[in-house]
Amino acid sequence: MPTTRESGLGGFIRRSGYLRKWLILGISIGVIAGLGAVLFYLALDYAGRFLLGFLGGYDIPEPVGDGGDPGSAGFDRPWAIPLVTFGGALVSAWLVAKFAPEAEGHGTDSAIEAVHTDPRAIRGRAIVVKTITSALTIGSGGSGGREGPAAQISAGFGSLLTRRLDLSDEDGRIAVSLGIGSGIGAIFGAPLGGAVLAASIVYRRDFDYKALIPGFITSATAYAVLGSILGFEPLFGFVAGDYRFDHPLDLGWFVVLGVVAAGVGYLYARIFYGTVALTERLPGGKVLKPALGGLAVGLLALAIPQVLASGYGWAQKATVTDSLLAIPLWIVLILPLAKIVATSLSIGTGGSGGIFGPGIVIGGFVGAAIWRLGDLVDAPGIPAGPAVFVVVGMMACFGSVAHAPLAVMIMVAEMTGSFSVIPCAMVAVGIAYLLISRADVSIYRAQRLDRESAAEEHRSGD
Predict the structure, then answer these.
(1) Which of 23, 177, 299, 361 could be joined to 311 by an S-S link, Cβ 3.0–4.6 Å?
(2) pLDDT tens-digit profile of 36-82?
(3) DSSP character for 7?
């Protein structure tokens, strides 16, 4: 007669073979990842329309996949913008401090840490608080990405399954990894990239092959659920579909782009975590410091509106020649640094939101800046439009500093419908990653070096 531990659904899954076990778990996590991504997308959309739109009098530009609204030409009530960013950050920080202190920051690191230390550790309360507070932070104009909350929702469900079904630590780690990848892949409409991300995001120099095949099932399920509700249009549409790589000498431009992207990615990690360290030393509580950071972002936005919220709509504008040329050159050149500062002030001070999305926008404007300068002097080999530079910049900048070059390359290609840029991207991303690898820096501090070092840590902790 089966023991209590071996009876019920948990016992059935633990006794199941590889295929049946990961079909059940993978589809279950994928469904929650897709629904969680939809829930957070709608919460963020409503928060943004009310806080920045109604109270602030400013409509953020949207990418094609979110509707393509070109946004406001300027601020109707400039004085209201700093007040809205301050108020949103204040309420968000109070909720975090009151109900779930672990929901502070970007969230993905917490999920990665759970993979390595205790896959049962993510509390359900933290997921709820993260969803609400991130919607408030980003919806009020804070510079953050929507992938952090989406990843924490599905990673938290993987953690819940690990607890309730009493899964082994090894299966639990895979389940939480699948949650991270499928959540991010779903919210960005990038299922293949999400599956590869699940297998690569937890290490700096390694790949968890055990999470890859279950990741296909989980990410495809999450994408199907989200797409059936919100649509299957790529986030940025098909922005470089007419690009064809047919001049090998043009790769020189992507060598330059890779070098610059690595430098900006390095600055992103250093400035972000420098802000985290400085914030910890400054006087003031867990509520006041994020609120003041939000106020600073609002004041910065009066000069550079592109730093507000996720910035995906502005990245969309950067892919089109006419709309990019309409942005003053000095803003295009300074925007990568300004977005780094705004993200650090919004999330690094203790606010709630992701850092993947801002990294994509930062990289996109790195590419846009290089194209603008090349076009200005009519440099030889410069493409007719900026789209390929923007797309490859997204891949190289964040793919390198996240130590997930292949996953980010695939994700951005899916988000932009731009697989034709892959030959150029391989050069830029490869160079950027090799340069970043020489420095002890990552945008995700919870990553372990490789599977061997992680296994040694598990053994020493037993």
Answers:
(1) 361
(2) 999 999 999 999 999 999 999 999 999 999 999 999 878 999 999 99
(3) S
Do the domain assignments include residue 109? yes
Share of the chain above pLDDT 70, in %: 98
pLDDT at position 26, please?
95
Domain assignment present for residue 36? The answer is yes
* CA pair distance 143, 359, nearest whole angstrom: 11
Give yes or no for residue 451 having a pLDDT over 50. Answer: yes
Domain that includes residue 411, residue range: 248-437
User: Domain holding 144: CATH number?
Assistant: 1.10.3080.10
Region 18-40 average pLDDT: 95
DSSP single-letter state for residue 203: B
Q: State if pTM tops 0.85.
A: yes
Question: Which pair of structure tokens corresponds to residue 45?
Answer: 């959309």
On whether both 298 and 202 belong to a single domain, the answer is no
Six-digit token string for 438? 């020489």
Tokens 């917490």 belong to residue: 110
Place of tokens 């490859």: 392
DSSP string, 94-149: HHHHHH-GGG-B-SHHHHHHHHHS-TT---HHHHHHHHHHHHHHHHTT---BSHHH
CA–CA separation, 302 and 398 (whole Å): 27
pLDDT band, residue 1 (cuts 50/70/90): very low
Statement to judge: residues 270 and 220 lie in one domain: no
- Where helices occur in 201-354 by DSSP H, the ranges are 212-230, 251-281, 288-303, 312-318, 321-325, 329-343
Same structural domain for residues 30 and 72?
yes
* Residue found by looking up tokens 């802000």 in the block: 275
- Residue 344 has what pLDDT? 97
Burial class (CB in 10 A: 0-12, 13-18, 19+), 163: middle
426: closest CA among 245, 213, 219, 211? 245
